[in-house]
Amino acid sequence: MRKKLLGVLLSVAMVASLLAGCGDKNDNTQTPDNQNETDDAGENNDGGTDDASGGGLVGVAMPTKDLQRWNQDGSNMETELKAAGYEVDLQYASNDVNTQVSQIENMISNGCKVLVIASIEGDSLGTVMDQAKEAGIPVIAYDRLIMNSEAVTYYATFDNYVVGKKQGEYIRDALDLDNAGDKTYNIEFVTGDPGDNNVNFFFGGAMDVLQKYLDAGTLVCRSGQTDKDTVATVNWDTGAAQTRFETILSSFYSDGEKLDAVLASNDSTALGVANALASSYKGDYPVLTGQDCDIASVKNMIDGKQSMSIFKDTRTLASKVVEMVDAIMKGGEPDINDRESYDNGDHVVPSYLCEPEFADIKNYKEILIDSGYYSEDDLK
Fold first, then answer.
1. CB 335 within 8 A of CB 327
2. Residue 287 and residue 164 share a domain
3. Same domain, 190 and 334
4. Are 263 and 189 in contact, with CB atoms under 8 Å apart?
5. Closest alpha carbon to 137 in 230, 56, 44
6. Number of domains making up the chain
7. Residues 60, 54: Cα–Cα separation, whole Å
8. pLDDT digits (tens, 9 = 90+) for 13-63
């Protein structure tokens, strides 16, 4: 009897042991939801850290679709980020600050791991940037510096001071100002949105070249409009630039006085100037600068209506930002080449500056077509 009781007890113990073993195995087996939680925490099935192949959501906020360059920037970045294995939430805000704020709030609530933001107005994102900071989300300011916010982690742009400097140098060389002697040349100025911090660099770089010729009287601005705020163009709007420039032409150049040069900070404002010249100016087209190499402005360049445009290859900038995002996602430090120039009012933002170059009638085929940026048909 004692042996039978012992056998029963042993059998019960073995069954209990087997059931316990099965229970341990089930507790360690992850459901798909558990696996996702582990991946979100930065680990993969191999036990290492999650890399680009493991993905992650990246929020990309662009200001508008109204300008060609922002469409290209957004599209290039989305393509490269997806190719690197990331999910992308790409939004355009129609140049409306409240819309952009709402879009970024949604990106934060939807779990974006990194935010890439080309702001409409650099000073208008304070509250939503605080939300990003509280959520621990790194922010890369894209081509427009976000001002007065501690949340800005990095900045990626072109060397915007050099952009303006190249525009000023182009005017200097085209008019041969250093050998002007007693000659004088008339010049007018058109820059961009006063809320865009880049304007300070574009206009500052150009004026660092041109101011001495204004001071010497070699360059003359008949309208007298030479300060940055007066020559600003809200939202870089082509129509606004055209209206202002038509007024300048009718007020100061209707007497047959020649206009020799126009410093326009980008192509949308240069297009407004070109439109105004076509409608109400009887002389030859002046030296006219621009920036972005938009198709309409390159066509004007070919037709002799615009002299040059600064080429900022958005493919280069998009690729650099993808590299920065990838480094952040992997817990590393992105490549930075400037830690001094860009103070957003809260701190100096670590930046990567790409190098711009200019295109004109002499080299646009090499720079824009041979590089594959445009096709011949795009410019017909």
1. yes
2. yes
3. no
4. yes
5. 56
6. 2
7. 19
8. 433 443 333 333 333 333 333 333 333 333 333 333 344 345 899 999 999
Gyration radius (Cα) of the chain, Å: 29
User: Between β-strands 287-288 and 219-220, what pairing exists: parallel, antiparallel or unpaired?
Assistant: unpaired
Asked if the structure places residue 39 within a domain, the reply is no
CATH of the domain at 210: 3.40.50.2300
**Domain that includes residue 296, residue range:** 160-312
Q: Does 6 fall in a domain?
A: no
- Give alpha helix (H) positions in the chain: 2-28, 32-40, 68-83, 97-109, 126-134, 160-175, 198-216, 238-252, 267-280, 295-302, 314-329, 364
State whether the Cα torsion 98-103-107-109 is positive or negative. Answer: positive
Q: Which tens digit of pLDDT belongs to each residue from 158-216?
A: 999 999 999 999 999 999 999 999 999 999 999 999 989 999 999 999 999 999 999 99
> What is this structure's pTM?
0.79
Token representation of residue 295: 């198709």
Contacts of 113 (CB under 8 A, 6+ apart): 56, 57, 58, 137, 329
Token pair of 351, please? 């930046």
Burial class (CB in 10 A: 0-12, 13-18, 19+), 339: exposed
